[in-house]
Amino acid sequence: MASLLIGPYLDAVKACLATVTPAFGRIRIGDAAPIASLEAFVLPVKTDFPNEGEGSTRGQVHEILVRLAVTGTDPEALTQLCLQTVQAVDAALEDWTAWPLDVPSTMYAFVAGHNYGPMFQKGAGLAYWPEITLRLYAVEVS
Q: What is the rounded CA–CA span in Å between residue 82 and residue 69?
């Protein structure tokens, strides 16, 4: 039984992030051109098969990490930008419907959590690296 690898879901998340871009200026995904103040990295975490071998279906749970980089020089303004950025990306992921519909079919996707992390400082620059965890459930029928 062939399974849909996590790759098409990573591509769908990148496409979803591109819809958030106009609200925040430019965005960098992976190794694309550098940006001014916002970057996003889409990282595969794992794929679980919770009901392997049960009947004619095979469930798949994909976990994807979206790591954002939000930079600035004013701590209060940066904190607000970090929260607004995470909120905008969360809303876009929750509303996204263009998940791969190959076999297996995507049953549902949801944001499982936010991790804002500490504020980092280097010289006069400040940065947050907040993370959004996304889980996607798919079912493969043989």
A: 9
Architecture of the 7-141 domain? 2-Layer Sandwich (3.30)
d(CA 24, CA 85): 8
What are the extents of the domains in the chain?
7-141
Strand intervals (E) in the chain: 28-29, 38-48, 57-72, 105-115, 119-122, 125-128, 131-141
pTM above 0.85, yes or no: no
Q: Which amino acid is at 58?
A: R
Which residues is 141 bridged to in the sheet?
57
For 52-93, how does the pLDDT look when each residue is reduced to its tens digit (9 = 90+)? 666 656 778 899 999 998 888 889 988 988 888 888 888 888
